[in-house]
Amino acid sequence: MYDVIIYTDGSSSPADHSGGWAALLRKWPGGPEKVISGYEANTTNQRMELQAAIGGLAALKRRRRLKVKVISDSAYLVNCFHQGWMDNWKLNGWRTYRNKPVENRDLWEQLESQVAHHDVEFEHVKGHAGHTLNERVDRLASEARRLGVGQTTHTRDDHSE
Question: What pTM was estimated for this model as a whole?
Fold first, then answer.
């Protein structure tokens, strides 16, 4: 049983390098939800995927340690935690197994800081495969990118513990 489930997605345009991200936080089971999104002018899809997870976790209040599930269609994000990439990167001075600097280190460090506040599990879902809430955050991230703005909305009462 989880206290909060966070659905995340990122979006970027190869044409103009703009990006958007979105996170939907839902108190479990079936509780109220909070949606947040953001925009960056010069970015990549991977950065937006990471920013969605960072934003979702940062939206949780820290009155107590929560059991959180982050659901993403980004194998890049989920595999880092399932396969221990970050531990290896840190042991290697933030270098990959091919001895190259880790891309997006700044965001990985921010994400690590957010994860440390809660008991977080990451789950991968296939993108564009009909998963209702994944499709919803995909639309929200794309909208944030297209409009060049982010937003926060609440339905029912604020659940962010």
Answer: 0.90
